[in-house]
Amino acid sequence: MSADNKSPLKPAGRTTSGALVIVVALLFGLGMGAAGFLAGRAMVIEQHSPTAVASMPVAAELAGQVESIPDEQVDNSPVVVAVTVEPTLAPSPLSATPIPTSPPTVTPEPTPEPTQPDTSNTNVIEPPAGSPLEGVEFTTFYEVWDLIAGEFDGSVPPANEMLESIITGSLETLDDNYTRYVSPDVAERMRQDEDGAVEGIGAFVIENDEGLFEIVRPIDGQPADLAGVKAGDVLIEVDGQPVLDLSFDEVILLVRGPQGTSVDLKFVREGEEEPVEFTIIRTRFEVPVVESEILPAEMTGGATIGYIRLTEFNRSAEEKLLEALADIMAQNATGLIFDLRDNPGGFLDQSVAVADAFLPQGVALFERNNRGLDETFRTGTGDIAETIPLVVLVNSGSASASEIVAGAIQDRGRAVLIGETTFGKGSVQQIHPLSDGSELRVTIARWYTPNNNTIDGQGITPDIEVENPEDLGGPEDGQLMRAIEFLLTGQ
Q: How do strand 335-339 and strand 390-394 relate by DSSP bridges?
């Protein structure tokens, strides 16, 4: 099970409408006549969802709110125009036949009936018994695409792209951002990331509330950081290609790439009237799972305070954390700051194991769903860091598994939380590899803290709120300094 919703770079559908215009012809005249006709054009409207913003957030999370572009107003009603050609009364120069005194009878041409596609040989696959699609008639779907193939004035997409679009579009009816289809190329890239090594620009990113690609934090010393990319920047173009209508996974695939190659990125930044642009050389880097140290004496007033930062809940999170705790405790630390800021989450079992390192016996979380699941996850007694004075740092980038740990520690009174309200992703996804190498990630349950508070959509509110710093770590980090103060004074 995975609880990911952000990605270390190590979220609009379109509808079309048109009016069919009937062409009517009238034939008049003696001898030679003229034909009039009527024609109209089908109009196509692109509807922009809140993610398809011109100013795109920051435009989009510019902290903010992004407003959608209003739809173009188009009158789609049929328009009929008749052109009448008056009959000529002059004799033809090629004929001496007298002009008749009454016009001949002209039989009007019949209006053609709309063509009906031949569906007699349509190969419609019947859904298996018990499928939600059982009984759905797919004939219309094939009719539509047969007509598109024969009449559309443009390029028809490859079949695999069409299929992916159909799957993605159908999943949107669930109204759940985390149940999603991951294409084969993106899924393969994610699997490659599991060893911790990544090729890209070096930044933690998130799909924000508007469905847009937002920088959570550039990784210190990596290309995005060195170029000047900042937390809160929202991406609107990659190599000149607008990305407002692309999925989060599609944007990741565009931004990342082989080390040594360059990528041109354009962002909307809060406080800037014009977009900011960067050309960044991709590199290969590793995101350390755990960073730990005894904080400098000049920051702590001489007290021995340990600091551990967990960057994600991957398969080695518990192991790396316990190693760091053992090292900190061996140096006789009198207090500990556990930093979960910008941690996007990860595996559920790892979150329970990490919480267990700090908590005695008791409830870590509840997991429930509407199919009857009601499971309790517990911590045990006797772990290494159950009694050391503790402060936990969180911010809006702390999500998923991070929120499980922070919520358990807060509800059970083990430590205070300092920082900002967390992201609010309280759901667990089951990953299903599919036959073509793609993946389906399905939300199967929701999480609740030991006090039965929901995480999903709410997040965890810290005990002491401190604004997020521009850079994490060091004397300029107000949240870190407030945590030190609390350990030294108890308030």
A: parallel
Eight-state DSSP code of residue 254: H
Which of the two residues, 162 and 392, has the higher pLDDT score? 392
Active centre residues (catalytic): 400, 411, 425
Place of tokens 């518990």: 318
Is-contact 270 63, C-beta < 8 A?
yes
DSSP string spanning 306-373? EEEEE--B-TTHHHHHHHHHHHHHHTT-SEEEEE-TT---BBHHHHHHHHHHH--SEEEEEEE-TTS-
Instruction: List pLDDT tens digits, range 438-460.
Output: 999 999 999 999 999 999 999 99
Spatial separation of the C-alpha atoms in residues 355 and 340, rounded to whole Å: 12
- Residue 46, CA distances (Å) to 14, 23, 243, 481 in order: 6, 26, 15, 50
What pLDDT shows up at residue 118? 53
The three-state DSSP-derived secondary structure of 136-188 is CCCHHHHHHHHHHHHHCCCCCCCHHHHHHHHHHHHHHHHCCCCCEEECHHHHH
